[in-house]
Amino acid sequence: DADKIDALVDARNGRITPLIFTDPELYELELERLFGRCWLFLCHESQIPKAGDFFNTYMGEDPVIVTRQKDGSIKALLNQCRHRSMRVCHADSGNTRAFTCPYHGWSYGVDGALKDIPLEDRVYPQGACKEQWGLLEVNRVASYKGLIFGCWSDETPALEEYMGDIAWYLDGVLDRREGGTEIIGGVHKWEIECNWKFAAEQFASDQYHALFSHASAIQVLGAQPDDEGSKKLGAAQTARPVWETAKDAIQYGQRGHGSGFFFTEKPDANVWVDGEVAQYFRDTYQEAKERLGEVRALRLAGHNTMFPTLSWLNGTATLRIWHPRGPNKTEVWAFCICDKDAPQEVKEAFERSATRAFGPAGFLEQDDSENWVEIQKVLRGYKARQSKLIVEMGLGNEKVREDGIPGITNYIFSETAARAMYRRWADLLMHEKWADVEKATEQFEKELV
Ligand code: FES
Prior knowledge:
Elements: H1 2-8, E1 9-10, E2 15-16, H2 24-34, E3 40-44, E4 53-59, E5 62-68, E6 74-78, E7 93-95, E8 98-100, E9 107-109, E10 114-116, H3 120-123, E11 140-144, E12 147-151, H4 159-163, H5 166-174, E13 181-192, H6 196-205, H7 210-213, H8 215-221, H9 242-245, E14 249-254, E15 257-262, H10 275-283, H11 285-292, H12 294-298, E16 303-306, E17 310-313, E18 318-324, E19 330-339, H13 344-358, H14 363-378, H15 382-386, E20 389-390, E21 399-400, E22 408-410, H16 416-430, H17 434-446
Antiparallel strand pairs: 1-2, 2-20, 3-12, 4-5, 4-7, 5-6, 8-9, 9-10, 11-12, 13-19, 14-15, 14-22, 15-16, 16-17, 17-18, 18-19, 21-22
Helix pairs in contact: 1-16, 6-16, 10-13, 16-17
The structure holds FE2/S2 (inorganic) cluster.
Residues 81, 83-84, 86, 101, 103-106 line the site of FE2/S2 (inorganic) cluster.
């Protein structure tokens, strides 16, 4: 019940109980109250440009097909045949005029309408109400600068209101150039044996882990970028780490969303990217600065989560969804996103960089997921599951900045965003009405600043 959930997440004092990562009943409640109500990323508009194009994805554990209609609009349909629940579409993506169920052959249009039932007159002599048996449609679909989101609930606020200040941070990826962005190549998909919240929290809140979990990679590639980009192997021993040299750094955490970045002084400040990508950031810096201002134009090494499951890293072009697969498993989908106006060879360099660092075998991805998987194993223990974890970092140091950077912020090595995320998680699970969720979150945030 609500009091028990509340007790599991004492964000005001920086304590959480790890049952939230393991409990099957809480997981069922997440599917209903969190994945059933939040705006969830579906795909990028560039993945379904033409009428009849479709992209198969999930909202929580519900399989959903995103389709482009004849009039250019977008629908999201539950990928579940109305007859016996079979998936009507198994392809990852493609173009079609109909989805035909492989079990008994019922056929649906890309708008979800049931078009054809084999032997209809004979098997339904009483008459089939085909107009009532179309695929179920996701209640709301909306786009934000190329990203398509879906929401099952009519009560949830409109997408941009739901996003709040995380939109300002997301614009640092989506709005650098006039032409917007596109997805390059396919989608890397793999499973990891851990709860989805470890991944979402780390991308929202945890710059701190990089000092240790990525120590080897940082040592090899260099702790501080220079004009030679990733070619500067060997300079690592003399370079000072970015957390010592950056003139400022922040963590943002509000309404479950989180972000963090260092204020860098060069437009190619990311050591994980190919030389072509670093050069591209130098070449396009002025345009990005005019569109976004200096802070975001230079912000090429940020980590981010839009609650609950959309995460991205500025500069390295990786955008991912953490699809839940039970309390102990997550299916990771990684997309490579880059500016549509970039030259082809730069797009290919973006894809190489993203795959090498954050693909399924990426040298940074492996560091991260090993931690999460090992934690999930520890939490099989009865005592371990009940213990309190400390989420206190930066507690009491939250503030609203006066330089135009929006939202509740803190120093980058903080757990402000983690506290915001777990509090939002609890508020969603505890309250049936969205207005009560908002009231609870607002109260928590008001006490912070
Ligand atoms: Fe789809 Fe029977 S389950 S036609």
